[in-house]
């Protein structure tokens, strides 16, 4: 079968779960536009381990890994079935590539996984497992992890990399609570996002791997880069990473860009997704 596209989605704040804005409808339309997967492998910055771990629960556990948010968030569940066979397959592929991967029955789906999945597949009826991120490793490593896992996309597995296209929480929390939603996008956010999007379109891997030294305002856009690193996994896993669709849904709280990307020969177009978002 032809390979499914790979996705990078921005999950922003946990409040996305109850405040869909422009991002929620976009993700729902994207889920409809992509051929239905048999299983999902999701990578989130909120599960980071020194070496790869892959969840092997038969039934997923919803993790509320955040504090200080409205009570309604803590009652939300994403009761998707797990994908233990996919977990075993993923671990073996990573081991074959020389990585000391293991399965894990203690995690589940953190908010970086279940919040966007709530919109992509709201019925929670696609089996899903989560792969941990190695946040201390450089973009080149993340890209190679993606390349290692690329065969999964040809087997009907949708690889979803979740993060945030920009992610400066210090600036979000600096604004008064009631004013955060109305905070205009900071100019540096647009400059960084434009640079990164242009380098992606050109497939300038040298620049993308060295983005912290080359991109404008890189350290302000990402004081720590775990929320950007998953995009390299999605890029590396695509059958044709030069085929890309960029979905611009703006920013929240002035500092969190909510862009999404589909990579690969089967990536749906803006028109296809836009028609389903009506």
TrEMBL record:
Domain Extradiol ring-cleavage dioxygenase class III enzyme subunit B, chain residue ranges per copy: 35-240
Lipoprotein listed as a keyword: no
Cited Pfam families: LigB
SUPFAM superfamilies: LigB-like
GO MF annotation: an example: zinc ion binding
EC number: 1.13.-.-
Keyword Oxidoreductase: yes
PANTHER family, alphabetized: 4,5-DOPA DIOXYGENASE EXTRADIOL-LIKE PROTEIN
Protein name stated in the entry: LigB family dioxygenase
Organism: Pandoraea sputorum
Lineage start: Bacteria, Pseudomonadati, Pseudomonadota, Betaproteobacteria, Burkholderiales
């Amino acid at each position: 079968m032809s390979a499914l596209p790979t996705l990078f989605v921005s999950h922003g704040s946990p409040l996305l779960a109850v405040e869909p804005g422009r991002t929620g409808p976009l993700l729902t339309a994207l889920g409809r536009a992509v051929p239905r997967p048999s299983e999902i492998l999701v990578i989130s910055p909120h599960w980071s381990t020194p070496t790869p771990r892959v969840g092997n629960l038969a039934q997923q556990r919803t993790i509320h890994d955040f504090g200080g948010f409205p009570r309604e968030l803590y009652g939300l569940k994403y009761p998707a079935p797990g994908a233990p066979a996919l977990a075993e397959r993923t671990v073996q592929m990573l081991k074959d590539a020389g990585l000391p991967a293991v399965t894990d029955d203690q995690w589940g789906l953190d908010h970086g996984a279940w919040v966007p999945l709530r919109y992509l597949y709201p019925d929670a009826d696609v089996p899903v497992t989560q792969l941990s991120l190695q946040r201390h490793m450089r973009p080149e490593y993340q890209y190679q992890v993606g390349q290692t896992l690329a065969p999964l996309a040809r087997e009907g597995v949708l690889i979803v990399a979740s993060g945030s296209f920009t992610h400066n929480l210090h600036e979000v929390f600096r604004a008064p609570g009631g004013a955060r939603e109305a905070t205009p996008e900071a100019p540096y956010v647009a400059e960084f996002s434009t640079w990164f999007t242009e380098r992606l379109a050109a497939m300038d891997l040298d620049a993308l791997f060295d983005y912290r030294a080359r991109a404008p305002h890189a350290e302000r856009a990402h004081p720590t880069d775990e929320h950007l690193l998953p995009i390299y996994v999605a890029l590396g896993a695509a059958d044709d990473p030069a085929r890309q669709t960029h979905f611009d849904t703006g920013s929240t709280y002035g500092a969190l860009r909510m862009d999404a990307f589909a990579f690969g020969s089967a990536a749906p177009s803006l028109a296809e997704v836009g028609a389903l978002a009506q």
